[in-house]
Amino acid sequence: MSFSPQFTVTAALLRELETIADLKARIAAATVQVTWTPRLAADSRQRGAHASTAIEGNPLTLEEVRALERGATLPVHPERARREVLNYFAGLRWVEKRAKQPKPVTHEDLFRLHGLLASDVMDQGEAGRYRSIAVRVGKHLPPPPDMVSCLMRELLAWWNGPSAEWSPVLTSAILHYQFEDIHPFADGNGRAGRMLALWELYRRGFDTHHIFSVDEFFWEDRSRYYARLSAVPAASGDLTAWLGYTTEGVRVTLERVWLRVQQFAAKSSKKKTVLRPSQERLLHLLRDRHDGLAPAEIWDALDVTKQGAAHILAPLLKAKLVTRIGTRKTGRYLLT
Questions:
Q1: Quick one: how far is CA 226 from the chain centroid?
Q2: Quick one: pLDDT at residue 148?
Q3: Three-state DSSP class for 334?
Q4: CA distances (Å), 179 to each of 107, 161, 222, 229, 237, in order?
Q5: DSSP 186
Q6: Average pLDDT, integer, range 141-147
């Protein structure tokens, strides 16, 4: 037995996919060799962390999530709220790195990802282990625990094989739904399922700059999100309506990103700043180091002298792409 998703490619679905392709092309053209793309990626990362955890009831605001990523303390909130957001960032960093590797996704990868997302925030079960108990999600009764491993094996076989025949916009949504339907872990499945959908967009090259956060669309109308998920079993497993909803979400997300792109472009200097390869490399390094880099770490990473590093950093600091905290000698450099 193998997993084979059931859906119909309707005229409406095709129109959404065409609009998405057009928006994606416009955004890609606008973000070639521009200085503010890393800031757009940081904005998307923070919006995703806020939205995906807020769907599950996390009380932190978007501004508090931004502050938390910068290392600020949030004493007015319980430790669990803080931990859920930090776990999301940890899981996202892992997915970003794993997405660059063309290896098949395995059970162990899912265990690792869930372990990062659910560490110290599980109400039941164990992080990084398939569930050994029966669970209920509203009116939905997921498969019994002794079927979970087999069902996930079938889903992984589809993901690593036949899914490549379809648009990642569709396959990310199919993965999202099927994962939630199986509900393989005792807790934390919502965050993990949405992260899998994002992972699919990354590994298929749909979001190379990591600037799309579809979870924000889901969070803004959670009742509709849950209603769309629960409607699939009522349709005998037909995913057509679910795909219509999720492609709408991708289209709305790209429309918002396009607006942000235009806003960033309007605020940028009239004189275009063309990044040198060394500057692009530094921005990528800083994107993966949310605590920033010390001057000596920059010299080592770029294999340049102290003066060379200063020459690389100066335009980035002037364009406000990079911020220095502390002194020139002992401070740290972070993405703005």
A1: 20
A2: 98
A3: strand
A4: 13, 17, 18, 11, 13
A5: S
A6: 97
Contacts 24+ apart (CB under 8 A), 88-92: 88/48, 88/49, 88/52, 88/53, 88/117, 88/191, 88/195, 89/45, 89/49, 89/290, 90/116, 90/117, 91/116, 91/117, 91/191, 91/195, 92/45, 92/48, 92/49, 92/195, 92/198
pLDDT at residue 322, as a whole number:
82
Q: Where are the alpha helices (DSSP H) in 3-122?
A: 11-30, 37-55, 62-69, 79-98, 107-118
Q: Report the C-alpha gap between 108 and 116 in whole angstroms.
A: 12
Report all structural domains of the chain as residue ranges with CATH numbers, in order of start. 11-266 (1.10.3290.10), 277-335 (1.10.10.10)
| H, E, C per residue of 273-322 | CCCCHHHHHHHHHHHHCCCCECHHHHHHHHCCCHHHHHHHHHHHHHCCCE
Inform me whether the pLDDT recorded for 205 exceeds 60.
yes
11-41 in b/e form (b: 16+ CB < 10 A) is eebeebbebbeebbeebeeebeebbbbbbbb
Tell me which amino acid residue 62 is: L
Global model pTM greater than 0.85: no
pLDDT at 311: 86
Both tokens of 232, joined, read 């699939």
Residue 81 has a pLDDT of 95
Give the residue from 238, 232, 249 showing the smallest Cα distance to 197: 249
Q: Sorting pLDDT into bands at 50, 70 and 90, what band is 315?
A: confident
The answer to whether residues 47 and 213 touch, using CB atoms and an 8 Å cutoff, is yes
Please enumerate in sequence order all residues whose Cβ is within 8 A of that of 177, keeping only pairs 6 or more positions apart, or say none. Answer: 229, 232, 239, 242
d(CA 212, CA 303): 32
Instruction: Tell me the CB-side half-sphere exposure of residue 217, using CA atoms within 13 A.
Output: 17
